Amino acid sequence: MTISMYQAAIPVFRKMLTNLKAILEKAAAHAQAKKIDESALVNARLFPDMFTLTRQVQIATSFAVGTGARLAGMEPPASRITSRISWN
């Protein structure tokens, strides 16, 4: 039995993004319950040289979308998120 790269990769990305969504929903519920400003969480860094949570989510989603497009033989869609990612 053969399996394509698309079949091997896309279910992993779907699972990852589903888990990420659940984590973000839990964080939002926690912030609301504790009356914490959500912007404090989305702009937080675990360490000074890390990207903010917002940037990390943007990178994760852009990577999944871009990889899926390339595996399907398509050009990844240009978006305002991917065009703003800076690796500096």
Can you characterise this structure?
By secondary structure, the chain is an all-alpha fold. It has one domain (12-84). The protein has 4 helices and no strands. The model has no long low-confidence stretch (mean pLDDT 87).
The end-to-end distance, rounded to whole angstroms, is 43 Å
Overall radius of gyration? 16 Å
Low-pLDDT segments: none
Strand content: under 5%
Number of domains: 1
Q: Care to count the β-strands?
A: 0
Element layout with pairings:
Elements: H1 5-33, H2 38-42, H3 53-71, H4 80-84
Which labels suit this protein?
elongated, 66% helix, 88 residues, single chain
Compact summary:
This protein is mainly alpha-helical and 88 residues long.
